[in-house]
């Protein structure tokens, strides 16, 4: 059992929760106009980690046959025989239950919305079977994090926080388009849909750039809506610089550094944005 749990945690790369978690914490701080209570913060973090774990385990369960046919992914735990699909399914159920429990502990609206959140997370795994725009579904799956955190704090929805959801959506979708470039040839042969597989690598890179420019514009709009100060502005400039650097690491002719661009840089982007916005809010709150 312990071995299977360890393999599952490696399979779902739980440490990559850093992608969406800083944006969820940003949503919580915007809702609190400062640092939220530790109890609320703890339940939000539990919900974030358990929801992502459930979604990733479900994705590996749903894609096991597809992963086995792809040279890049055939050594993942389930196709490699290190883990059974039944264990992955059971892990998904446990993590989903933990998420529902955390949502219940937050407030009534989070509990009502929690099954819808899980449905969105699970739906993503099937989108590449019917639409080239599956990248946007992945973006939505992570983008709902700050809105969910806002609702967890306030118990209601403010349309302004949807701007941050949209920013995360296009940020994630942009780097997922880049990441999918690795599987362009395989996806086309296997009948799977993605922007690189249907439009080619060069258009895919332009679409990813456009998505990231849109993300930056939305972050600026967010700063205006919430009257954020110069510290947050510096954070947005830092995000823009890191995105620019990310796009210089890879090109349609050279994908060799794509893993570094995808994992390391995007984790840094999420953390830096949170740190600068958090500092801005905390300084303003204590001024």
Largest sheet: none
Number of domains: 1
- What proportion of the residues is helical, as a percent range? over 70%
Mean pLDDT: 92
Question: Can you identify the CATH class?
Answer: Mainly Alpha
First-residue to last-residue Cα separation = 52 Å
What's the gyration radius in Å? 19 Å
The third-level CATH topology is Tetracycline Repressor, domain 2
CATH architecture: Orthogonal Bundle
Number of strands: 0
User: How large is the count of helical segments?
Assistant: 13
The amount of beta strand, in percent, is under 5%
Low-confidence stretches: none
- Give the CATH superfamily: UbiA prenyltransferase
Strand and helix order? HHHHHHHHHHHHH
Structural class: mainly alpha
Shape: globular
Record keyword descriptors for this entry:
13 helices; 0% strand; mainly alpha; 287 residues; Tetracycline Repressor, domain 2
Structure description:
It is a single chain. The protein is mainly alpha-helical and 287 residues long. It has a single domain (2-286), classed as UbiA prenyltransferase (Tetracycline Repressor, domain 2), CATH 1.10.357. 78% of the residues lie in helices and 0% in strands. It has helices at 2-12, 21-32, 38-62, 64-69, 85-106, 108-127, 134-154, 161-180, 184-190, 195-199, 201-225, 230-249, 258-286. Helix 2 runs parallel beside helix 7 (134-154) and helix 7 (134-154) packs antiparallel against helix 8 (161-180). It is globular, with a radius of gyration of 19 Å. The termini are far apart.
């Amino acid at each position: 059992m312990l071995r299977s749990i360890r393999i599952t945690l490696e399979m779902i790369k739980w440490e990559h929760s850093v992608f969406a978690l800083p944006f969820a914490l940003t949503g919580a701080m915007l809702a609190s106009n400062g640092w939220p209570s530790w109890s609320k913060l703890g339940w939000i973090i539990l919900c974030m980690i358990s929801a992502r774990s459930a979604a990733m385990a479900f994705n590996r369960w749903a894609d096991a046959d597809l992963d086995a046919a792809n040279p890049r992914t055939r050594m993942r735990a389930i196709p490699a025989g290190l883990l059974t699909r039944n264990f992955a399914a059971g892990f998904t159920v446990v993590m989903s239950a933990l998420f529902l429990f955390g949502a219940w502990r937050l407030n009534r609206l989070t509990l009502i919305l929690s099954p819808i959140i899980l449905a969105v997370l699970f739906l993503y795994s099937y989108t590449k079977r019917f639409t080239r725009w599956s990248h946007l579904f992945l973006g939505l799956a992570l983008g709902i994090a700050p809105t969910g955190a806002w609702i967890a704090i306030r118990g209601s929805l403010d349309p302004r926080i949807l701007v941050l959801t949209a920013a995360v959506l296009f940020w994630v979708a942009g780097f997922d388009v880049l990441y999918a470039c690795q599987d362009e040839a395989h996806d086309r042969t296997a009948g799977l849909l993605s922007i690189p597989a249907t439009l080619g690598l060069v258009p895919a890179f332009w679409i990813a750039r456009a998505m990231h420019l849109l993300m930056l514009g939305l972050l600026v709009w967010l700063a205006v809506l919430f009257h954020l100060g110069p510290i947050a502005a510096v954070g947005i400039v830092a995000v823009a610089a890191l995105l620019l650097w990310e796009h210089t690491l890879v090109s349609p002719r050279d994908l060799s550094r794509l893993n570094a661009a995808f994992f390391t840089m995007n984790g840094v982007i999420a953390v830096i944005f949170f740190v600068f916005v958090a500092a801005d809010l905390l300084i303003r709150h204590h001024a």
